[in-house]
Predict the structure.
Amino acid sequence: MKFDQILSDLKNKIYYPVYFLAGEESYYIDAICDYIEEQVLSDMEKEFNQTVVYGRDTDILSIISMAKRYPMMANYQVVIVKEAQNIQKIEDLANYVENPLSSTLLVLNYKYKKVDKRKSFFKQVEKKGVLFESKKLYDNQIPAWINSYVQSKGYRISPKAVQMLAEFLGTDLSKIVNELNKLVLNISPDKEINDSLVERNIGISKDFNIFELQNAIGNRDILKANQIINYFAANAKENPLPKTITILNSYFSKILIYHQLEDKSRNNAAAALSVNPFFVKDYQDAAKRYSVGKLVQIISLLREYDLRSKGVNNISTNEGELQKELLFKILH
């Protein structure tokens, strides 16, 4: 079952006896679990009918015992097991799942792990209740996700602000939501979240960030690119080389894709590159400055320096110097 459908059912008071919430992306798991914890029972009902335990502090027999209790002065009881991935032999719940108590909502919060849906236990969960797998989003899915989330809150956000957030915050949805919620506190719904607001409130340096480095490299602005990389080298903890390499690898790979497009129209290029049409001209201009051969060389360099940043074929050069070396070879 999909996330939106689960939340819709919960809001419409359509409940299932078992919720097995698993996967590598914790945001959706927490969102479902928090809604059940906060909304299914009234405050008075929670006192006698809501139990929250942690996987490291409980076991299968205890969970079954809690789940088999009947509610007191309420239609339902809620049993939430957080960090259920720490329970040994979770499949031993099979006997309960096969015949669950309809007045209990048993919520198993099974974070950071995948489940094998082919196993009979998970097939039984899917048959009797909700089996939800929360998958990590890819880098190229984050901008659209940010746009969608901001719109769902009744706000607007500029393409540049989206790109800055996506590149600075990565793929951790919980972290992204926390930062977006900070931003909307500082703006009225009739105003747009723009790059200036992001710079002031998220801690991204206005002039020295990965977004500006990418633009400087794309424009072959050697002076500005070196100013930024020197700042990164002096603040390596906040600007780690592996993160820079990951973003630059994505950037140059997209320029290479642009070179290979037969239809280079704005909308087709935007779809092929998985970027907002607003940024297509940046890739178009960069493609004029970087040939296919140079791009292949750069991508190879990025792989080499990624290994060197992890100690492979690198005895003594520190991360700051590696960043400077890499930039020099990209631009020359």
Observations:
- Strands lie at 18-23, 50-54, 77-82, 104-111, 130-134, 156-157, 192-193.
- The mean pLDDT is 92.
- The chain is about 55% helix and 10% strand.
- The two ends are 52 Å apart (CA to CA).
